[in-house]
Structure prediction request, 616 residues.
Amino acid sequence: MIMNNTNQNHTDNFFKQGLSSPPEVNPSDKNWGEMERRLKLESKRRPMAWIYPVSGIAAALLVVFSLWLLTEKTGTESERLEGAKESGKKAGKNIVEIESQLSRISSNKEGKFTSPKIGTTQLSKSRSSAYRTFKSNPQSLSSQSFTYSRLPITVLKSARYLNIHTSVSNKFASQRNIGKSNVPVNVINAGFDKTPDSDSQSNTHTGKWVLSLALSPDVNSVKGIDKGDFGRSVGMGVSYKVGKFLSLGTGIYYSKKLYSADKTSYKVQEKPFATWTSYSKKIDADCRVIDIPLNVSLQMTNKTENKLYVTAGLSSYIMLSEKYEFIYNRPSPAFPTGRREYTIRNQNKHILSVVNLGLALEKPLSNQVSLVIEPYAKLPLSGIGQGETNLKSFGVGIKLNYSLIE
Amino acid sequence: MNSLEYLPDKLREGCISGERGSQKKLYYDFYGFAMAICLRYARDRDEANEILNEGFYKVLTSLYRYDQNKPFLPWLGRVMTNTAIDHYRSQLRHPATDDISEMDIHGENPAIDSKLNYDDLIKLVQNLPPGYRAVFNLYAIDGFTHDEIAAQLGISTGTSKSNLFKARQKLVAMLDAQKQQTERVLIPIPNNDNEQYESKPYRQFLQARS
Prediction:
């Protein structure tokens, strides 16, 4: 021990001398037992740490492929045909209406046409109706229903250009019987393939699988939302429709979570973290986290354009790195700036320990692509990170969804 | 501590590579040295055990930081002292009373069960309130200056000086109380020489004071 002071105090010397030759102490096996347990825990943690993110990804992939295989088996040809017939019936009805509208327009074509707007409006209604039919039958997301739903657009264009409306009308007329007689899918397809606007889109019907890319700025806080720091999260997800309105989703997201809190927010008892916390006035944290959610989404509206979903589920956090900066009450010789940094890697994981709540608004951009804006909250069920804090996140997810073609 | 002044390379490397046998050897070889430090800074043996294992944990997991060209004992001692200081600071939320009247300075029968040897002295130090004990250890035994102590404990230099002064006062008061207790017990025993109940350091202390 370095002697810096030159004290000559009698009491000091007396004690120093008296304590200078401690008796032999037999090492305690009990103490060593505790130490050994702690060392085992340490050695177990480190080399295996990589396995958590990897197993998380593997689990997510497993879920995705299991569901995929399940769908392949259950979605038989007869079911699809049945669905297609159903769509054919409904779309057939629409066609009858459209046809009658067109006939009326047609009869007015020689100068008697009064208001093309009337025709347009009615046709628009027809279009909406057909589109609703398509949307309300996600089980029968077939090329047929989709083609039908597109048809009124063709008609609408034709109505605007009266010179061609007759031919269009004739084409529909020739298809009327098809709609009424519930002919099989391929026949309907064959008929519509002849229409001028029937393009490659007739095959782009979306399926049950949706892939998404997400970027989510968020606020992380262990106290109120107003005391949070900004972070962000990026990643990709996949979801699967299990019913008309329900879908299951998972994914993998890399999050940067920054937050700052006073020592009372840190619940950890483990040393030395607890010790450093105890004489810090504030601790800043910078955590890198893999977030693997398992969510259920419920579609709340049945509108053709924008759709509203409520999402709930649980997330697992794999803490890749946690950097804490202890801001001491005052400087010390070892830490003259009064700050001490402490970084740990791959030491904490919180399996299904965070509740996800979200409200998503989906706006279609094309047949397969849609934009989703999703305000969300992530609320922990257990202490997060080494400091075991109540780390909440509030953010807005901006997602680009891509529906896979079946 | 002779040959253990420097840590053998094999032992050091074994510990760094996580070899349990080497870690156990280091722990057992230096247990006594480390415990002597921990006992001074702790209020009792349980707390000393806690500090000891915390300190050894740091040693065994951070041994790669130790410069093998330097003596090992000062490094180990420093780790233990720092751990004790950390521990002291973590306990600040629950400060112990510093009222000397509440201290267990009489114990059982000091004249019979002890001779004011190492064990008695360590008990007196342990009986000091934590703040006084930390300053007294750092200044009187480990030789730090008040400025250094103030920085380490997060107190002012004035507080460090004041705590040292009060620590000395309390230690002297406890020694006096111990002496009186000893005399009370010894007087009724006929033909008994007090010498056999007093240790050498205690006699020296009494002589120096008179």
Summary: Confidence is low (pLDDT under 50) at residues 109-126, 138-204 of chain A. Strands of chain A lie at 206-221, 229-241, 246-261, 280-299, 307-328, 339-364, 369-380, 392-405. The CA atoms of residues 109 and 162 of chain A lie 7 Å apart.
